[in-house]
Amino acid sequence: MPRSRFTGLIVIAVVLAVLPFLLPNNFYLDLAIRMMINACIVLGLNLLIGFAGQISLGHAGFVGIGAYASAVLTTHYSWSPLAAMLAGALGAGVLAALVARPIFKLKGHYLAMATLGLGIIISIIVRNEAALTGGPDGMPVPALALFSFEISGEKQWYWVLSGILLLSLWASLNLINSPFGRALRALHGSEVASQVVGVDVAKYKLAIFVFSAVFASLMGSVTAHYVGFVTPNVADFFHSIELVTMVVIGGMASIYGSVIGAVLLTALPQALTGFEGWETVAFGSILMFCMIFMPKGLVPTLAAKFGRR
Amino acid sequence: MNGEWLPQFLQFLFSGITVGAAYALAALGFTLIYNASNVINFAQGEFIMLGGMLTVFFLQSGMPMPVAVVLAIFIPALVGILIEKLAIEPAKNAEVTTLIIITIGASLVIRGVVQVFLGKGTHSFPAFSGSEPIAIAGATLLPQSLWVLGVAALVVAALGWFFSRTLMGKAILATSYNRLAAQLVGINTSRVLFISYALSGALGAIGGILLTPLTLTSYDVGIMLGLKGFVAAVVGGLGSGLGAVIGGLLVGIIEAMGAGYISSAYKDAIPFGLILVILFFMPRGLFGSKVTDRV
């Protein structure tokens, strides 16, 4: 249905445009910014998990590569933020391309294991190379300056990220309706069948993995500059799980589901702060509950209920 | 230096085999649940944590050691059953990713509850039979290591007997080969699930109890131990019991050697590097069966 394809995008654009005028203070603006950052990462990850059907339990590793490339290269080697960001993205892309062939020969739990291992190794490296990365304590990151223009303050960041998010949404919507996107979905349906009709399975898996890794790395850089500080937590296993959870709760293979999943799971810890010590229990219970009763995720489940896609 | 390589090597080997035995128990737990329900239970590590933490708790509340240990094995087994009944069964036929997230949710709940009631502190309890090291060819071995190895060997032997000599064990094996066929010949497959999860919880707990006097325990030790147990299970080829035991020992030994000879800071990275190398060359682990896709 090409007519309604961009309706959601327009709705999101309108919401993003009026939101800053409704939010009472910078705390909520900050929350909105973090939601948008997560939404972008989750979009890329959903293309991999939801559309191509390849799980990654180590995606935070790529976010970490971007974040630390920005932090280390600008601080220790006085690179410009843009150059550092691109270097991080290049690094993440090359790493993804190198491991993609052997990794995507694997399936199911073996693929989960391999991506998990990759992510954990990256997070251990970040934690251990204290001379460069500040170790477990993390390190500060200078502000993001692009051609003598410096982005600072929640307001500016909000608009920058709104732009990035809308652009990513628009690109993803186009991508999944392109021949490339159809090939990805064919892959998810049946690898053998798509091979039979001439889809180069290995090539497409590689492309989408590299793409989502590069995207995660770029957003990692953005996060690092926005927060002004990085800790090894950006790269650790739990963050990977959070990202996958956002994909699955929002809805696999659902572009708008990615946004919803990111919004809900970013807000959840804030909503749970009143539980004093029970946050982890509540978080875990909600995960289980959602997955048991809505295994397809929020957006596809609701869409099916109300008869729309 | 040259004449000292043997004691040093033995020292690393001993500590490797000791943790390896605990990894093997965790890997067996993964294997049991995987065979029974095709689920990778990411809460497996929490059973290990529960074993150690509950023993600490029961000892502190004044129970004698044997009672504390029995309870600390029994409760994780019960938790295993609860996970199966409350989370896995209702979500039947869900995708791999969904099931993975459900078990991760379960692990968060367990960890959270322990953190609320038993706190964030690091605990231990005295070794079962003293901590006077035994000298062997210049290297030393703690009595607790012997306990770990002995009990693990006993458990493996008991499991071997259970699966080859008892009707229930054979029923579990039959179910793991073909669930539908097992149902058709009258095997109660939901009982099989029940027992597999209980056994898996108990196995993890035993590993945790044995290891605690050597490595300490706290509410968050389950993640790493569980993931390494998963590595061990995959090294051995998911679903193979013998593979899980060998995988566990192998991961333990290679980790200890790597920590000793290469870098102790990267000790935790070694199992994950190992699994990547193995999977790249043997996509189904060392003992995994070859599976062809049906279209």
Overview of this protein structure:
The complex is a heterodimer of chains A (309) and B (295). Chain A is mainly alpha-helical and 309 residues long. Chain A has a domain at 26-236. Chain A contains 14 helices and four strands. Chain A has helices at residues 7-22, 26-51, 59-76, 81-103, 108-128, 130-133, 153-176, 179-189, 191-196, 201-227, 237-250, 255-272, 279-293, 298-305; strands at residues 139-140, 144-146, 149-151, 229-230. In chain A, strands 1-4 form a two-stranded antiparallel sheet. In chain A, strands 2-3 form a two-stranded antiparallel sheet. In chain A, helix 1 (7-22) runs antiparallel to helix 7 (153-176), helix 2 (26-51) packs antiparallel against helix 10 and helix 4 packs antiparallel against helix 10 (201-227). The mean pLDDT of chain A is 88. With 295 residues, chain B is mostly helical. Chain B has a single domain (2-281), classed as Orthogonal Bundle (ABC transporter involved in vitamin B12 uptake, BtuC). Helix content of chain B is 72%, strand content 2%. Chain B has a two-stranded antiparallel ribbon with strand order 1-2. The chains are: A mainly alpha (309), B mainly alpha (295). At the A-B interface, helix 4, helix 5, helix 9, helix 11 and helix 13 of A face helix 4, helix 9 and helix 11 of B.
Task: Write the topology of this structure.
The complex is a heterodimer of chains A (309) and B (295).
Chain A: H1 7-22, H2 26-51, H3 59-76, H4 81-103, H5 108-128, H6 130-133, E1 139-140, E2 144-146, E3 149-151, H7 153-176, H8 179-189, H9 191-196, H10 201-227, E4 229-230, H11 237-250, H12 255-272, H13 279-293, H14 298-305
Antiparallel strand pairs in A: 1-4, 2-3
Helix pairs in contact in A: 1-7, 2-7, 2-10, 2-11, 2-12, 3-4, 3-5, 3-10, 4-10, 8-10, 11-12
Chain B: H1 5-37, H2 44-60, H3 65-88, H4 96-118, E1 134-136, E2 139-141, H5 143-165, H6 167-177, H7 179-184, H8 189-215, H9 222-235, H10 241-262, H11 269-281
Antiparallel strand pairs in B: 1-2
Helix pairs in contact in B: 1-5, 1-6, 1-8, 1-9, 1-10, 2-3, 2-4, 2-8, 2-9, 3-8, 5-6, 5-8, 6-8, 9-10, 9-11
